[in-house]
Amino acid sequence: MKKLSTLLDDLYLLPLYGVLAYTMGLPGWPKIFLHEKVIGRYTPMFADTFIGQTLGTSTMIYLLGVMELAVVILLIISLVRLEFLSCKTKTWLKAAVLMTMLTFMSLGFGLRLIGNVDGAANQYYYFGVTFFFYGCVSYLDRLAGQAHYTR
Q: How many other C-beta atoms lie within 10 A of the C-beta of residue 31?
């Protein structure tokens, strides 16, 4: 029974990887690799905002796509380094969760600019939930670091 408990302790972070990869990877891919299809939808929405008039909607959509795909890359690095194991520090996973929070803040800001208050509120709720998970991952990281130094 102890082996099963240890196995479960090592695997319970994997769903977080899946949720973050799905949430960030799925919308990030078309923003970078199918940009022509995506940008046409957003350009009219942001035309009257300072983003549309200064930085350009296209630039901001690319940047959001890069941020979203960066989360997936950070998650892959974390998986390769086996950071989901309870005995490993979680540097790359924490970076992925932080990048997810930054992305949600950026998406919320953009939705607020175009007057989509409900959508912006949702993004900030997602930020809050992700912040909670960042706290959990940071706690596990500290435990792994303490275990490393006490051995």
A: 22
